[in-house]
Amino acid sequence: MTLRGILGVAVVGAGRMGADHVRRLDRATSGARVAAVADVDRERAERAADGVEDCAVHSEPLAVFDDPAVGAVLVASPGPAHEEVLTAALERGLPVLCEKPLTPDPESALRVVRAEAALGRRLVQVGFMRRYDAGFRKLKSLVDSGVQGRPLMLHFRHRNVSSPPGFTGPMTIRDSAVHEFDTVRWLLGQEITAVTVVRPAASSGAPEGLGDPQLLLLETSRGAVADVELFLNCGFGYQVACEVVSERGTARTGDETGPVVEGPGARCREIPPDYLVRFADAYDLQVQRWVDAARRGTVEGPDCWDGYAAAAVCEAGVRARETGARVAVETEAPPDLYR
Ligand SMILES: NC(=O)c1ccc[n+]([C@@H]2O[C@H](COP(=O)([O-])OP(=O)(O)OC[C@H]3O[C@@H](n4cnc5c(N)ncnc54)[C@H](O)[C@@H]3O)[C@@H](O)[C@H]2O)c1
Ligand SMILES: O[C@H]1[C@H](O)[C@@H](O)[C@H](O)[C@@H](O)[C@H]1O
Which residues are in the Gfo/Idh/MocA-like oxidoreductase C-terminal domain (predicted)? Predict the structure, then answer.
């Protein structure tokens, strides 16, 4: 509910990302407050809610829906837990910002799409935050302007210092490469039609059996090709970069993120340690825009269909990485709500 125009948000999942969003909503967002935090690990919920005024704490995620102070939900639990919360929010007509992935597989994503389509109005935004990053937004404007002609190739680098404990091969695609899948669709306005995954010798810095790094090749519906270096245990910093090669020029973002540091005999550029630093401004803008739209009774940004389409590419990507074959992406036709 909105109290005196202030949106009461429940944050479900208070781990790394959820706790960061609680802080953001509490201190860096206007027009919203954190009304509740829920986590199956109650201590985490309590830690995240510590110092937030009038904030309820729950260890049962669906309890937030019984709280009249809650007018919107931010979902930051692990991907497999998203569907249950999304379904409950849709049943109650509450706006949702759901961290990526919408759900980890296309079948469950399609159930969410159909539930929202049956309502006939959008309630869900997916947290593909690169769409709110200043550098990526400039690339998008340039591509849309057409001044460099048609985009032909995209080169991506996606490096993390280390993968989280328990990360599996399929998660490298569903939790990490899913960002590139959305970025390609958004930047080009084209669907990804096929995925190939090439795996060099695994780095000794990666957990045994993870098969990190990987090189992904994505083909699109109007003939563009994207390559993605996905290296989740590079050991030295967080790097997300993208170069668009078009008919009459190129454009690149992501190389120059940290400040230039000068000292005795050296001039260098700091590399951010993780996504919370690299994309801080993008998360801030994403959440502020979501709150502003929810208070107006609307939803903007990446929608359930984008979440489903990315999940379908993930499915092909997981099979491509397991088989070494080129795998075609299979999708249903979008309901009218998303056309
Ligand atoms: N946009 C981004 O750049 C970005 C970055 C990191 C994570 N994420 C996404 O955010 C989500 C959370 O990731 P994280 O890195 O914070 O994970 P995390 O493991 O740090 O935190 C997840 C939290 O959810 C809790 N949890 C588990 N099952 C739950 C359930 N059913 N209901 C409520 N809480 C539950 C866990 O106890 C934990 O505290 C994932 O969807 C992840 O893909 C997005
Ligand atoms: O969940 C995180 C997050 O989505 C990051 O943006 C990405 O760089 C990581 O690879 C992934 O594990």
Answer: 140-329
